[in-house]
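Checklist before submission:
- one chain only
- standard amino acids only
- sequence pasted in full

Submission:
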Amino acid sequence: MTLEVAGADGQRRVVTLRRAAALGSGAERHAITDIAPGTLLVRLGVLSDDKLMEARPALAAAKAIVFDMRSPGALAPIVGALLNEPAESPPILTPILLRPNQEGMEFAVADKAIMPQAPRVHARCVFLADERTVGQPERDLLIVRELKLGKIVGETTAGTAGDVAEVYLPAGLRCVFTGRASRGYDGSVFFGEGIKPDARVIRTAAALTAGRDEALERGLEILSSPAPEPAPAK
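Returned file contents:
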């Protein structure tokens, strides 16, 4: 598709838009790339769960990894490879409705154990996020933050984690809503709030025009900086 657009400088120019490849197509061939010596860029949004699992040996061999989570792609299938020991997932709440209009509504709270996976990924990691990070990837980032698996870089996530429920109504209408809600490890609500990044990077028109990815650039800066010293044992 070709469009004629006017820039902020008043100049008109012709731009060409190309449709992105769909999940499962040739896009997966470029989902994991060497972006710097010893550093991998993993675009989770164009990588199926099976392909992500197959990539674990390559991830384990990397010295640093940038996980691009600025899409619905989830880290969940391999998050255990980032762990040294078992951990709990963030709590998820299922409403128990016994009366109309949510009167007396209660919640069943559940979580599950996340077990370490082999091969273990020892690389330093950063995680790119913004408003396109929605659903399961947000739950993954809660794990990242709680267990200090790496820095989150970019912008605040969508704030819409939780399982989707749907109801079909008369006249063929389909109603979709959040059937189970996620919470932070401390029980805090982030629905509608999102997860704030450790390093905030706002996209600019100048960078987009130049074809630059400022969040990725900041993530690489973090990975190239000296690793922080571990806290002394108590």
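Reviewer check: Helices lie at 49-54, 56-61, 136-146, 205-210, 214-224.
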